[in-house]
Design goal:
heterodimer, A: mainly alpha, 2 domains, rod-shaped, B: mainly alpha
Chain lengths: 252, 142
């Protein structure tokens, strides 16, 4: 470009003409513009940095929050697992399902031998009591009857074998009450099976055998004849308990 | 202004989450202590209780424990053999009079064999068979 005063060549960034010393307006204007741009640039740069800092602070907080929440959940789950005892029943149920055919055959043997107590114990010990597996289907109508029979015989044994040691806790009253409760349960189950017209199969015969055994047991161990037993079975639970206690506590 | 509120909200949430984390940490520490607690050998403890029951001739209690245990273990776990045998003898002896009244020869024979086998296996607890027989004799005499 040329100097406006002397007409000689001047560089675009030279503020004065190197030949005559006159001001170079273009260079001055350019310098002024550049200074303005620089200020604006610095301001924008500061603003962007500030904004980015804010966003990054919130982001960091969000990450900390997520870490705390996830950490809390993980710690809670580990703690819960520590408090939880291993579920042995689940393993039993799996075993009962895996060996269904074999166990069903063993249950049949127990019933054939008249070991109804063993039948119930086996059902529980192998997690079969509430199983819906079709292998166990045939025991459906007998298992709850057998369970109440089991409880009745168990309580009768506990009554007969109760400790007479005065220094030992006398649990006779509670054993008698529990027996009366299960006796009612047994007759409810067995009568309900009869009322619903369950077909007379061998399993029903086992139920009748249990009923017979229970009757004989009561007659033998609670000193009753047929008539007294009939009367006893029609009594209320409380009256039954009093009657049994009278017999058991009597000395002979 | 908006970012200030957001900041405040995050600070609050972090405070709450931090407190929850702290509680979970305490819960975890107590759970580890629970898991590593010293547990008395159940077999030894049950054996002591079993001997105590025998001392007081509380066969009802021995039977009660047996029926509870057998709901979990059909065959006796190591250490529980004697308690199972005594209870099974008590049950077989209890059923003997019932089978006899029923006049079911098959059941009588099986039960008799079982009683004899169990009596032999009772070993140092063979006196319990006499206690059981005596309790039944008294009960049936009433």
């Amino acid at each position: 470009m040329k100097c406006k005063k002397c007409g000689r060549q001047v560089g675009p960034e030279e503020l004065k003409c190197p030949h005559c010393g006159a001001d170079n307006e273009f260079a001055l204007q350019h310098k002024q513009n550049m200074e303005g741009f620089e200020e604006k640039f610095e301001a924008t740069e500061k603003e962007v940095a500030k904004s980015a800092k804010k966003i990054s602070a919130i982001g960091t907080k969000a990450i900390v929050l997520v870490i705390l929440l996830v950490g809390s959940i993980v710690l809670y789950m580990i703690a819960e697992a520590n408090y939880k005892d291993p579920d042995t029943n689940a393993a039993k149920r799996r075993d009962g399902e895996q060996h269904a055919a074999e166990y069903a055959a063993q249950l049949d043997v127990l019933l054939q031998n008249g070991d109804y107590m063993g039948f119930v114990d086996f059902l529980y010990a192998h997690g079969i009591m509430d199983s819906s597996n079709k292998e166990y289907e045939r025991f459906r109508n007998i298992r709850y009857g057998a369970l109440t029979y089991h409880r009745c015989i168990q309580e009768m044994e506990e009554i007969i074998y109760h400790s007479t040691d005065p220094d030992y806790w006398d649990s006779l009253d509670s054993d008698i009450s529990i027996f009366c409760m299960y006796l009612e349960g047994f007759y409810d189950t067995s009568n309900s099976n009869a009322e619903t017209g369950e077909k007379k199969d061998k399993y029903q015969a086992y139920m009748e055998d249990m009923r017979e055994e229970l009757k004989i047991a009561m007659k033998l161990y609670f000193s009753m004849d047929d008539e007294e037993l009939e009367e006893f079975l029609n009594m209320k639970r409380g009256q039954q308990a009093v009657k049994i206690e009278e017999v058991i506590r009597s000395e002979k | 202004m908006k970012s200030k509120k957001l900041n405040l909200l995050f600070n609050l949430l972090i405070g709450v989450a931090g407190f929850a984390f702290f509680l979970c940490l305490i819960y975890l520490i107590t759970s580890i202590e629970y898991k590593n607690r010293e547990v008395e050998d159940p077999v030894a403890a049950d054996q002591r209780v079993f001997e105590y029951k025998l001392k007081h001739k509380a066969y009802n209690e021995i039977i009660s424990s047996y029926y509870t245990d057998r709901l979990y273990d059909f065959e006796p776990k190591p250490g529980y053999e004697d308690s199972y045998r005594i209870s099974q003898y008590a049950h077989a002896a209890f059923m003997k009079a019932i089978y006899e009244a029923q006049q079911d020869d098959s059941k009588i024979k099986k039960n008799e064999t079982r009683l004899e086998t169990l009596k032999k296996e009772l070993g140092r607890y063979s006196y319990t068979a006499d206690d059981i027989d005596e309790a039944l004799r008294k009960a049936l005499a009433k």
